[in-house]
C-alpha cells in the first residue's frame, strides 16, 4: 500500500523525455547546488551581524550544527537498517541526474535541508525558516523530478529533521553553555588576527 503510493506519487512528479529541457536544467541546479546555502549561512551568521545579537546568533548556529550532525548520523543508520533502492536502480521512471546506486531512504539532501529549515524556524526567525522550508521543498521536488529519489525519501528526511532538532535542543539544555564557551574560545584563538583587524566579529 505505502510502496504503491510511493510509486504513484513518483510517476506524477518524475520528468520524462518529453519534459522541457530548461526545466530539467533548473531542476539539476536546484538538486546539486542549492544545498550550498547551508554552509554559507552558517559561516555568515557566525562571523557577522549586529554586536548585540552575536551571542544569540552563534548559539543558534551551534544548535543547528548539532542538529545537522545528528540528522546525518540518523540518516546513515536508518539507511543501513532499512535499505531501499533508488528509482533508477529498480528500473522505475526516468533518471536525469548521475548518482551512485546507494541507499535511497531517507534522502541525505532532504534530511539536511529540512533539518536546516526547521532549525531556523524553531531557533531563528519564522520568516527565515519559512523561506528555507520553501527552498527545502524545491530541493525535494527536484531530486524526485530528476529520478534519484522517491517522494517518501523526502518525507523521511523531514521526519528525521524533526527528531534531530528535538535531540539537539535536549542536548543543548544539558550542555549548551559549556559547548558555547569552548567553541567561542576556540574561535577567538583561531580567528584572532581577523578579529583584531575588524574583518569578523569577536
TrEMBL record:
User: By its UniProt entry, which CDD domains does this protein fall under?
Assistant: PAP2_BcrC_like
Q: What is its EC number?
A: 3.6.1.27
Which Gene3D superfamilies would you find in this protein's record? Answer: Phosphatidic acid phosphatase type 2/haloperoxidase
Source taxonomy lineage? Bacteria, Pseudomonadati, Pseudomonadota, Gammaproteobacteria, Enterobacterales
Query: Residues in domain Phosphatidic acid phosphatase type 2/haloperoxidase?
Result: 61-169
Annotated protein name in UniProt:
undecaprenyl-diphosphate phosphatase
The catalysed reaction is: di-trans,octa-cis-undecaprenyl diphosphate + H2O = di-trans,octa-cis-undecaprenyl phosphate + phosphate + H(+)
Q: Which residues form the signal peptide?
A: none
Keywords of the record: Hydrolase, Membrane, Transmembrane, Transmembrane helix
Write down a Pfam family by its short name. PAP2
Q: Which residues are listed as membrane-spanning?
A: 22-48, 60-82, 105-123, 130-148, 154-175
- List, in alphabetical order, the Gene Ontology terms for molecular function in this entry: undecaprenyl-diphosphatase activity
